[in-house]
Known about the structure:
- The protein is α/β, with parallel strands linked by helices.
- It has one domain: Metal-dependent hydrolases (TIM Barrel, Alpha-Beta Barrel).
- Helices cover 47% and strands 15% of the residues.
- It is built from 13 helices and eight strands.
- The protein has helices at 19-29, 48-59, 65-81, 101-122, 138-151, 174-182, 197-207, 222-231, 239-244, 256-261, 280-291, 295-308, 313-319; strands spanning 6-12, 84-91, 125-133, 156-162, 186-191, 211-214, 234-237, 265-268.
- Strands 1-2-3-4-5-6-7-8 form an eight-stranded parallel β-sheet.
- Strand 2 (84-91), helix 4 and strand 3 form a beta-alpha-beta unit.
- The chain starts with 5 loop residues before the first strand and ends with a helix.
- The model has no long low-confidence stretch (mean pLDDT 98).
- Zinc ion (ZN) binds next to strand 1.
Amino acid sequence: MKSLPKVELHTHLEGAAPPAFIRGLAQEKGMDISGVFAPDGGYAFKDFWHFLKVYEAATSTLTTPEDYHRLTLAVLEESAAHGVIYTESFMSPDFCGGRDLSAWREYLHAIQEAAAQAEAQMGIILRAVVTCVRHFGPEKARETALCAAETAGDFITGFGMGGDEQSGKQGDFAWAFDCAREAGLRLTTHAGEWGGPQSIRDALDDLRVERIGHGVRAIEDDALVDHLAEREIVLEVCPGSNIALGLYPDWQDHPIERLRERGVKVTISTDDPPFFHTTMTREYDRLADAFGWNEDSFRDFNIVAAHAAFCDTETRARVL
Length: 320
Ligand code: ADE
Ligand code: ZN
């Protein structure tokens, strides 16, 4: 499974930071973030809401464009080692210069330089989905969307939203999504992870997104499953993340197979791999064990993902 070429649509750049990398940065800067780590050296959290706090504490060590340059290289090196040939990563102006456009441009420049280096050395292609953070509220999302709109292009190809799905409503963020759409960005949002089926309906109706981050709780609503299948809405499913965060007790209980059987376009991603002790190889191995999927099944998933990728046709042709 490790060497099988993989297309990944849903990771968070800071969430993919190896814990040793974050610990090293904290030491260099004399920052005490010891509460972030478990005794085994990994990240420690007790539930999703605690995870968001630990994520933000770990991210507080990333304070310069140079830090993001190093982070991007470390993350892409790890992904490439697991056969990932194309990856889309959520990036937040909230964490990169505090939504200030000129600072955001500097962070972006550093990230893009690292991406070009990784592509030349390892062949892995990175595209960026600028993301607002739902629990930071609609006003910050508006500033984030303006940063995204100003820098939209070949590298920044999408706009999305992560964070606490139970904070506010999807529709509160419509201005930000409209702004991003008008700038030519493709749209996705986290929905149907901690929110139920209605959060997916709201994402489609109020934000008019074309993909859904997670979306797995659609399984609780038959009519919605049919709607997703008919409209060919692609789900960025992250099974290991859902299991690590306690959304489903085990791999066999995960709805990805039932959604696929009912004709929903599902793809496979890691979300925040070191937080959830996962990699793309591990996702494939566990799914193969749980559902009897083989290399041909995974090739099909990768074709779906490549077609749903927020990239231009030339890039897609290199991935397919
Ligand atoms: N940010 C990072 N990982 C996330 C997740 N799984 N859900 C929502 N926001 C996130
Ligand atoms: Zn996510």
